[in-house]
């Protein structure tokens, strides 16, 4: 399955990119599982996320074609 991943604020600067397409092996992935698949470690505790522009938690399912955004808890406007 393919999902679009977006990074905002400090994460974008640290990773050196504003997003990427992620190919995941199968259905049944969560937001936390996506982060672990991409970065090889559990997501930071205070990481905020959105799936398809709706606030999401680490256990929120990720499905083929979803857009997942990761951002720090405080971002500027």
TrEMBL record:
One GO CC annotation: molybdopterin adenylyltransferase complex
Note one Pfam family from the annotation: ThiS
Q: Which UniProt keywords apply?
A: Nucleotide-binding
Q: Which GO terms describe its biological process?
A: Mo-molybdopterin cofactor biosynthetic process
Q: Nucleotide-binding: present as a keyword of the record?
A: yes
Q: Which InterPro entries match?
A: Beta-grasp_dom_sf, MOCS2A, Mopterin_synth/thiamin_S_b, ThiS/MoaD-like
UniProt key word Nucleotide-binding: yes
Give GO MF terms, alphabetically: nucleotide binding
State the family it belongs to.
Belongs to the MoaD family.
Q: Could you tell me what this protein is called?
A: Molybdopterin synthase sulfur carrier subunit
Q: Which organism is it from?
A: Thioalkalivibrio halophilus
């Amino acid at each position: 399955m393919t999902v679009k991943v977006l990074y905002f604020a400090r994460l974008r600067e640290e990773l050196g990119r504003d997003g990427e397409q992620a190919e995941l092996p199968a259905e049944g992935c969560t937001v936390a599982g996506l982060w672990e698949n991409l970065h090889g470690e559990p997501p930071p505790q205070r990481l905020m996320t959105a799936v398809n522009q709706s606030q999401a938690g680490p256990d929120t399912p990720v499905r083929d074609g979803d857009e997942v955004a990761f951002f720090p808890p405080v971002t500027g406007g």
